[in-house]
Amino acid sequence: MRVALLVTHIRAEEKLILAAFNNRDISPDIILDRELNFNISQGPQQLAPSGIAWREYDLIFERCVSTSRGMYALAILNSWGLRSFNTYETAAICGDKLRTSIALTLHGVPQPHTRVAFTPESAMQAIEIVEYPAVLKPVTGSWGRLLARVHNRDSAEAILEHRQTLGDYNHHIYYVQEYVDKPGRDIRAFVVGDRTIAAIYRASNHWITNTARGGLATNCPVTESLNEICLRAAEAVGGGILAIDLLEDAAGNFVVNEINHTMEFRNSSKPTGVDIAQEVIDFVIGEVGVVA
User: Fold this and answer.
1) 65 φ, ψ to 5°?
2) pTM confidence score
3) Which of 23, 16, 34 is nearest to 263 (CA)?
4) Which of 2, 98, 171, 206 registers the highest number of CB atoms within 10 A of its CB?
């Protein structure tokens, strides 16, 4: 089995993934996204930066830090018929919060009240319909960057003015959600194929609980209800290898907040006791084997 691991650089997760492949006697070719140079019209017979024709690869495993590089590389490679995890379609949905919200709605998956507007004036209307406090998010981005919780009209006007003046076009898409008063934590669950293999609570005194921002990870039991909503959310965006971020409302019900297609998990295997990297790699080997 020939595998290309497409990366920006080797992080802790990629080291774990390489080790998991090696445990199954597979040594992926590491391809750096900054070295990519596709001839769109030539097709998969052209050489990859590894010196091997793209068509020789049984699997492209995409782990780029840059969402745009990874997504467009997958668009090209999938158009040539190459198998990848995840697919371009899944990456394109998960990499855009608006498209994720649309997909969840179409599949009836619970999520926070979400509105989208295109001008500061209509965005203010959206915020006041959602009611304070409300959360403003960029439609693209990760690690909790540029999230804002607004408590009143003055703070909302200031943030909208800054985004309209300083932001690029993505920041002029005003994605507004209700603030879910979670119990000092949220949940990240890991879906691999048709299983929720593990989940963590991410606790913090700050309202943004990402582990990248200092949130503390502890084990979250994968109950029947948690597994059910996670699998529905994964199906909504096309399935594969995904991290589902969920919130618990005041009644203890789950709502899906975001879905990540190049998930980080280095802080999650220890508290859950699950070798997430090996679970992922064994799944993709099995999937590619079935196709072959």
Assistant:
1) -70, -40
2) 0.92
3) 16
4) 171
